[in-house]
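Sharing a chain and its predicted structure for anyone who wants a worked example. Both blocks are below, sequence first, tokens second.
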Amino acid sequence: MNSYAWIILIFVLLDYALGAAAGVLNLKNIRDELPEEFADVWDKDRYAKSQQYLAATTRLGLVSSTVLLAVLLVFWFAGGFNFVDALARGLGFGPTLTGLAYFAFLAALSNMISTGFSLYSTFVIEERFGFNKTTLKTFILDRIKIAALACILGGPIIGGILYFLGHAGPNAWLYCWAGVTVFILFIQMVAPTWIMPLFNKFLPLENQELKQAVLDYTDSVDFPLENLFMMDGSKRSSKSNAFFAGFGKRRRIALFDTLIEKHTIPELVAVVAHEVGHYKKKHILTNMVISILHLGLMFYLLSLFISRQGLFDAFFMEQASVYAGLLFFGLLYAPVETILGLGLGMLSRKNEYEADLFSVTTTGDPQAMIDALKKLSRDNLSNLWPHPFYVFLAYSHPPVLERIRAIQQIEIH
């Protein structure tokens, strides 16, 4: 084993150990007492059920991460990457198509494993706790659609990256950066109208009282909104959510039908105000800029390492190639990705507090946002006492109890 292999192996094992430790700490942080802030919405049975749900999902996470780690190590040290490379080369294609075949073979192997865990999660755990509404037909169709999108959208962009890296010389990383940036912006524009409807129905909001309340609010904060939809989230799960997507005239706010069913109009307006807050505070734009800069850094570093023979030796490759170099660099780059991810997680949690503040100050109704958060946590069986280390590693949102206490400190003028 050379230095590249040791760096990647150590990080893979460290990443697994940190994730496992965080999961165990999260389970040990479970407390018997229900926080007093939730006493008016939760009951003891629901609270106990949330702890059982946490235990079940954590155990599945530990098992799946252990299996995936074992498969990766066996595949790696048994020469699996070189074996798949020989299969791809045996098809007789040129470099770019061979690279696409290589990624397709590896993706198929990965999906075979991950699909098993997804089936268990959906039809055993989510079913046991009353969340699952997905039929086997919907599950299979979702997988087919995802695979088709990967081929239709992912194939050309990966093929383009492989082509430029193989033919464009020292400035290839710049062309790749520019091309992927344009692709990401394009997807952000078309996803709400072309891609998301492949998986869910987006219907114009029929509840006129709610629609008028939302439109009155968006007008009051100078946020013209034409696209307000109800999404059939109940097609797959009884969990509730809402989200903002798109840019310009294509932007839309979607409320899950399960959310509309379980919340009052003031609570729903508060949730919409929170989503508008992300836009008004430029969180979406900031995240996009950070993602684009991150891409530039990644492609630049890729250009420095993609041809290093030691990287191919670390994975027992008989022949070097652009596509294998791209894959192996991704494993080498993982520590940087993790550190950046931790920073982005901290930024995301900060942004959630700011969006809560925006919602409360613009609606003038902090209790509506608090009640919405309480009901969401109850209906989704949220963990009310997550361990700080687990939050640091995995949470994009602050714990719900901390959000509520932060809202309670806001002064409304």
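Comments welcome. The chain has one domain: 3-199+281-408.
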